[in-house]
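Entry under discussion copied across for reference:
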Amino acid sequence: MPDVHNNHKFWELYDLEKGRDAELSLANVCNQVIHSWIWGFVAGQNGVGLDGIFVSSDKKRKRCLYFLSVDMLVDLFRSVGEEDIYHIEMRRDETGEMKFTRILGRRFGEAVAETFELPDALKKALRDL
């Protein structure tokens, strides 16, 4: 089992020969990278270049290890980096913690897919700044 003393030896902890494809949402892939417990580079043929990374978050580390190719990483960075967030809604949950409930975005240069009106209370708060 991966822990703080052996997470750098991921090739000994997982059966890398029995990998299978998995579909993850963009948010889930980002979580694997951001909250990575395991992070390892995979060199190209003859140790030249970079083929990708092995990664697993603190929550997934006991169950699986993901491989992200360089092409997948480039697509991931582009998807996140080219997004223009134009609307965010947040609400407090039952414990009082603020949570995102809706995020609207688009790629830079694309038209906004939907229009929205700011709530009156928010308009007033912005005017009062």
Observations:
- The longest helix spans residues 70-81.
- The beta strands are 36-43, 50-57, 66-69, 83-92, 98-107.
